[in-house]
């Protein structure tokens, strides 16, 4: 099944303690697509300026990303310049030039309107809502957001919540949106307003999937070196939604698997600048990391070993 | 098998956004013992002043904690007064009065010297080392520490590392001790200096167990309300070492289980002040929470479902 992603396509300049990258591929749609394309076809909708180095998108096209919805408009492309300090926990934005992105009005091509899986990258919630008016009812609509929209477009964001099945946001954003310090309560608050599922991303501390009363947690993969955290969240979303679309299975068991594929893709993303690592991945590499995730959290209780006597700790004492 | 714990026995006065507790049971040895006692016999070594309300320790004795090593010395007991802000992430110490604890010289009673499992609570590393001179070679020696000792007794702490099998410390302490921001590298640094196992506690973000090349991660249980974080780390250690001693099995599979029992006990500890919740637990309650932990991280990959075709993501595409 194909995935439609609508979001930014940018040029990032990033400095980390480990190196510098100038004008590399950036943006939520780009990072999402570079991750999701390993699982199946991706349709991308976005805008770039007349100065965009289109050849940089060739690897995405080669991996099955349909760029028919990528408009090239007169003007400058979206550029973002940032620096990470030694702890890599938060980017210090040095410059944001929206360029043609400030006038972005997503136009969904006819051929994309029946996409069964839709990811609304982090853009104005009014535009996210507008995309949904242009598509036939998909099987799953997921959206991302950020602190800027929570602050400046709160009413629109709350309206959008009534029209999506799933939202991904980080822990700080979840707390900001819901005014709840506790993430379990924050997730319930969000689910009460529409989404059946809430993914709360905690960066290096992993991710929660809340679905009704059920809670699933996947740790971040403990990497020995994190090179550049930019795009980890969108790469996570790409693996997560990409997996769901590829399997076309929205059961809880499969949603849990999808979170692990998402976590795997997020962990690859931070190993290099931009989409360098994710776009070049092979399926066996992805499967290998998923197997490592499994190893990371695997444990058996005595309850598993002795299923009949009714108790682990009890059994251990006798 | 019995567990010997050496550490502080204090009176805590704690204020959280949810309430206030005055002169309740506190200290690393107390919190550890209140948790470990559910798994088997515990032998406690510590000191209190002549003003200590000994009746408060009666529930521990009733649950199998041998207090023969608890010295009552002339003078004031160790008192700690602290406040937590709304995020509950770090205690603001308002007052520390060491009292008789400042002259604590652990004397291990003859009857405790063959304890096969030893936990050296967070005290001066020179005293921790001295305890090891008084006991027959145990099957497992674990120690805890804190920022204060890392700063003021670094050489002694490094010496101690050569004599313990396992150390528990939180992420900030691991970074401080090793001067490594990355926790995987920090754990390797510590293991290179003696301990075969390193447990890095990340509070609400879970805990890592490093053993040689293997890494295990257990999330913190996502509670809807955290009442008082005091003693969570020692309660974790009590569940962890308590489980190992009860099962007398140091295999990697069992160490992983032990981390989960530790996490379960830590999650109970924060639901009430002091040891109120942990000491009153029943084994079925503990087993139930362990089962919930299992549910929290449980996922099956397609690799599990289709073990013969050699690939999850590949399988999904075909």
Keywords:
homodimer; 318 residues; alpha/beta; UDP-N-acetylmuramoyl-L-alanine:D-glutamate ligase; 9-stranded mixed beta sheet; 4-stranded mixed beta sheet; 13 helices; 13 strands; disordered C terminus
Account of the 3D structure:
The structure is a homodimer of 318-residue chains. By secondary structure, the first copy, chain A, is an alpha/beta fold. The first copy, chain A, has a single domain (3-281), classed as 3-Layer(aba) Sandwich (UDP-N-acetylmuramoyl-L-alanine:D-glutamate ligase). Chain A has helices at 28-36, 58-62, 125-134, 147-152, 154-161, 171-178, 183-191, 232-247, 252-269, 276-279, 283-297, 302-305, 312-317; strands at 3-6, 10-16, 19-26, 42-49, 65-73, 78-84, 91-97, 117-120, 140-144, 166-170, 197-201, 207-211, 214-218. In chain A, strands 5-4-1-8-9-10-11-12-13 form a nine-stranded mixed β-sheet, with helices on both faces. In chain A, strands 3-2-6-7 form a four-stranded mixed β-sheet. Chains A and B meet through helix 7, strand 13, helix 8, helix 9 and helix 11 of A and helix 7, strand 13, helix 8, helix 9 and helix 11 of B. Chains A, B: It holds the Pfam family PfkB. Chains A, B: It comes from Roseisolibacter agri.
Overall mean confidence score, pLDDT of chain A: 93
How many helices of chain A? The count is 13
CATH superfamily heading of chain A: Ribokinase
Distance, first to last CA of chain A = 53 Å
* Shape verdict of chain A: globular
Oligomer: homodimer
The neighbouring-strand order within the major sheet of chain A is 5-4-1-8-9-10-11-12-13
The biggest beta sheet of chain A is recorded as: 9 strands, mixed
Kindly report the CATH topology of chain A.
UDP-N-acetylmuramoyl-L-alanine:D-glutamate ligase
What is the share of helical residues of chain A? Answer: 25-40%
The proportion of residues in beta strands of chain A is: 15-25%
Largest interface, counted by CB within 8 Å of the partner chain's CB: A-B, 56 and 56 residues
Number of domains of chain A: 1
Structural class of chain A: alpha/beta
Q: Round the Cα radius of gyration of chain A to an integer and report it.
A: 20 Å
- What letter string, H or E per element, gives the SSE order of chain A? EEEHEHEEEEHEHHEHHEEEHHHHHH
CATH domain class of chain A: Alpha Beta
How many beta-strand runs of chain A? 13
Question: What is the architecture of chain A at the second tier of CATH?
Answer: 3-Layer(aba) Sandwich
Uncertain residue ranges of chain A:
305-318
Organism (chains A, B): Roseisolibacter agri
InterPro entries (chains A, B): Carboh/pur_kinase_PfkB_CS, PfkB_dom, Ribokinase-like
GO molecular function, one term (chains A, B): kinase activity
GO cellular component, one term (chains A, B): cytosol
């Amino acid at each position: 099944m194909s995935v439609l992603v609508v979001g930014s396509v940018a040029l990032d300049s990033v400095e980390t303690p480990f190196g510098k990258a100038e004008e590399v591929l950036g943006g939520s749609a780009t990072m999402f697509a570079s991750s999701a394309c390993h699982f199946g076809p991706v349709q991308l909708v976005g805008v770039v300026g007349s100065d965009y180095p289109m050849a940089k998108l060739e690897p995405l096209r080669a991996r099955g990303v349909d760029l028919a919805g990528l408009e090239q408009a007169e003007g400058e492309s979206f550029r973002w310049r940032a620096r990470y300090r030694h702890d890599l926990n938060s980017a210090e934005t040095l410059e944001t030039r929206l360029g043609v992105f400030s006038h972005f009005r997503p136009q969904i091509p006819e051929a994309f309107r029946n996409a069964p899986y839709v990811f609304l990258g982090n853009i104005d919630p009014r535009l996210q809502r507008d995309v949904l008016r242009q598509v036939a009812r998909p099987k799953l609509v997921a959206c991302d957001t950020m602190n800027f929209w929570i602050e400046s477009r709160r009413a629109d964001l709350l309206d959008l919540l009534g029209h999506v099945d799933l939202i991904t946001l980080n822990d700080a954003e979840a707390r900001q949106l819901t005014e709840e310090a506790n993430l379990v309560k924050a997730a319930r608050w969000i689910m009460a307003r529409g989404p059946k599922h809430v993914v709360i991303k905690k960066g290096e501390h992993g991710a929660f999937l809340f679905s009704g009363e059920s809670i699933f947690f996947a740790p971040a993969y403990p990497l020995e070196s994190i090179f550049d955290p930019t795009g980890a969240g969108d790469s996570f979303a790409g693996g997560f939604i990409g997996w769901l679309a590829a399997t076309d299975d929205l059961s809880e068991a499969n949603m849990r698997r999808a979170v692990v594929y998402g976590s795997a893709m997020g962990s690859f993303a931070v190993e290099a600048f931009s989409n360098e690592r994710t776009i070049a991945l092979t399926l066996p590499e992805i499967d290998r990391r998923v197997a490592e995730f499994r190893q990371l959290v695997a444990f058996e209780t005595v309850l598993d070993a002795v299923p009949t006597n009714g108790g682990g700790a009890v059994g251990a004492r006798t």
